Amino acid sequence: MYEGVVQDLIDELGRLPGIGPKSAQRIAFHLLATDPVDIGRLQDVLGKVKEGVRFCDVCGNVSEEEQCRICRDLRRDPALICVVEEPKDVLAVERTREFRGRYHVLGGALDPLSGIGPDQLRIKDLLSRIGAEEVTEVIIATDPNTEGEATATYLVRMLRDFPGLTVTRLASGLPMGGDLEFADELTLGRALSGRRAL
Amino acid sequence: MSLYRDTGVVLRLHKLGEADRIVTMLSRRHGKVRAVAKGVRRTTSRFGARLEPFNHVDTQFYTGRTLDVITQVETIDAFALPIVGDYQRYTSAVAITETADRLTAEEGEPALKLYLLVVGALRALADGQRDSSLVLDAFFLRAMAFAGWEPAITECARCGEPGPHHAFNVQAGGSLCGRCRTPGSVHPAPEVLVLLAALLHGDWPVAEGSLAGARRDASGLVAAHLQWHLERQLRSLPFVERRAREAPITGALGSDAMSGDTEVTGAAQGTRGSGVTEGVPGGPGA
Ligand SMILES: [Zn+2]
Ligand SMILES: [Zn+2]
To answer: Which residues from A are below 8 Å from B55, CB to CB?
Structure first.
């Protein structure tokens, strides 16, 4: 244990995702040795991040205005919505340059163990959006893990009854460059059920 | 470095560092094990999705200084895939794994019976043949029996007088006879007690012949009994879907209108006959 504010800094850093006690210590002592001007810049950004950043009224993505850049962009196809868990997933899909529709950010995945059920996510907003806008296809792009799959299952059930709406799920399959025999059963099972005609 | 190998069910995961996870498993011979799976979150991980919750796996560990480390995993039963394909089954499976985690406070203490109960319940959910709400309640009752909290269903919890009795009191440990009954007891209909006994003893024809009202009340009593004994509430329980409640029922003699603290009589006889095959229309697997 260090004294006072140094230990406080280590504790705060240690609460960040992906940072263990050793890394927290390393970052703390790095910051202590850093030029005050650099620290000032970091302080500045940290101060602004909570007051300056808000969430898009339409899609829930991080935004600096009422609506995010993507929702304001008239060239984006309003008939197509890609549903993701987090804002960082919007960036991941954007980087592909394959998608010209809009997004809906749920704010996480259904995870009863963490106290997250349908009411804790932006699912109602999605449903009212589909009711109000001219949406014809919803692409579910939740994470390919247990919580993400369960969330997709739930969404499919909720979206099934919208007339004229196509609901699709991101394809998941075998990683390129590997041997079939090393694939695990979940991955192989999903690849089989999602196979396509050639 | 010492190696050991065991089969186990993945109960839950915690992120560790950039790409690792701490995997909590309930194993056949070593009870609860918490071990590190290195690099498991990378898409190139050789573990793949084998260490996702609900999967039943054969695992090799080596004993680490603080946490053991997983070196190899093979799938015995890939329960996760069918379970996440149905939201009701998923929420039941989460409640099962959370309960198993909570009932095994000590790591490394063998809990073979609980392990078998968890594997059996997850297998039933993955198969999708049985109503998931019944599977969950049967698991809860048997897990409580494992923990030594089995509710008294047919005999009096206080004096052992053979029943069935009218009163049921969670704090007192279950059914209470006319002499032992205390204020605050509820009065479940006789078929609720029949269902509880069937679930505890694995009498599936009787359990599956029960009506929606009895199922709902039995679920309420089981949940109340479990929560009374666990120090903290189960986090997942409020999120469990009990779709059987919505199933249309035929010939329910008013049992649908009852709640835990209302005395309802006369509804019992219809459910006990072997000819009653209500089933669960639209249930999982349909
Ligand atoms: Zn937006
Ligand atoms: Zn008594």
So the answer is: 186
Q: Which long-range contacts (CB under 8 A, 24 or more apart) does A6-11 make?
A: A6/A32
pLDDT at A77: 95
Tokens of A166: 């196509």
Q: What is the pLDDT of residues B98-109, one digit of tens each?
A: 999 999 988 888
Query: Other CB atoms closer than 10 Å to residue A127's CB: what's the count?
Result: 14
> Is residue B200 within 8 Å of residue B141, measured between CB atoms?
yes
Interface with chain B: mutation pick from A22, A176, A186, highest number of B CBs within 10 Å: A186
Residue of B nearest to A147 (CA): B84
Distance CA A70, CA A61 (A): 9
Condensed to tens digits (0 to 9), the pLDDT of residues A140-182 reads: 999 989 999 999 999 999 999 899 999 999 887 787 777 888 8
AA identity, residue A81:
I
Confidence of residue B275 (pLDDT cuts 50, 70, 90): very low
The answer on pLDDT for B253 being more than 80 is no
Contact across the interface for A146 and B52, Cβ inside 8 Å: yes
C-alpha span between B42 and B19 (Å, rounded): 6
Residue B175 β-bridge partners: B168
Q: Is the peptide bond before A17 cis (omega within 30 degrees of 0)?
A: no
Of B78, B87, B236, the CB nearest to A186: B78
**Averaged pLDDT score across all residues of chain A:** 90
Q: Which residues pair with B55 in a beta bridge?
A: none
Of the ligands numbered here, which is closest to the C-alpha atom of B160?
A: 2
Q: What Å distances lie between residue B61 and A80, A188, B12, CA to CA?
A: 47, 25, 17
Ligand found nearest the CA of B162 = 2
In the reported structure, the alpha carbon of residue A70 is separated from the centroid of ligand 1 by a whole-number distance in angstroms of 6
Q: Helix B132-147 to helix B190-201 angle, to the nearest 10 degrees?
A: 70
Interface probe for A, chosen from B90, B136, B242 (most Cβ of A below 10 Å), is B90
A45-76: per-residue pLDDT in tens? 888 877 777 899 999 999 988 999 999 999 99
d(CA B192, CA B195): 5
CB A26 within 8 A of CB A32: no
* Interface predicted TM-score of the whole assembly (ipTM), two decimals: 0.79
- pTM score of the predicted model: 0.82
Neighbours of ion ligand 2 (CB under 5 A): B 156, 158-159, 161, 177, 180
- Find where tokens 């007051």 sit: A51
* Pick from B85, B27, B33: nearest CA to B57: B27
